[in-house]
Write a structure and sequence with these properties.
This protein has a two-stranded antiparallel ribbon with strand order 1-4. Strands 2-3 form a two-stranded antiparallel sheet. The protein is globular and about 35 Å long. The protein contains 2 helices and 4 strands; from the N terminus they run E-H-E-E-H-E. The protein is an alpha+beta fold. It has a single domain, classed as Alpha-Beta Plaits (2-Layer Sandwich). A hairpin with a 5-residue loop joins strand 2 and strand 3.
Length: 67
C-alpha cells in the first residue's frame, strides 16, 4: 500500500474544546494547543496521515485530507 501524503490538516476552531486527546494520540507530535487552548498543527510536515487525531477527536473538529 502506498504511503499517503498530507494535503491539508483542518481543525475547526469553533468545535475544538482543547481536550488534548488529539495531541496525546499523535505519534509524530504534529499538534499543540495555542494561547486560546485550541489545537493547531505546528509541524504538519511531520504528519504521517495515520488519522488518529481525526478518529479520536470527540468533537469531530479535525479533518485530514490526503493527496
Amino acid at each position: 500500500m502506498a504511503k499517503q501524503k498530507l494535503k491539508e490538516l483542518v481543525i475547526n476552531r469553533d468545535w475544538c474544546k482543547g481536550c488534548k486527546i488529539c495531541i496525546h494520540f499523535c505519534p509524530e507530535n504534529v499538534l499543540e494547543l495555542d494561547d486560546k487552548d485550541k489545537a493547531i498543527p505546528v509541524r504538519p510536515e511531520d504528519c504521517i496521515c495515520c488519522r488518529l487525531c481525526e478518529y479520536r477527536c470527540p468533537d469531530l473538529a479535525i479533518e485530514i485530507f490526503t493527496e
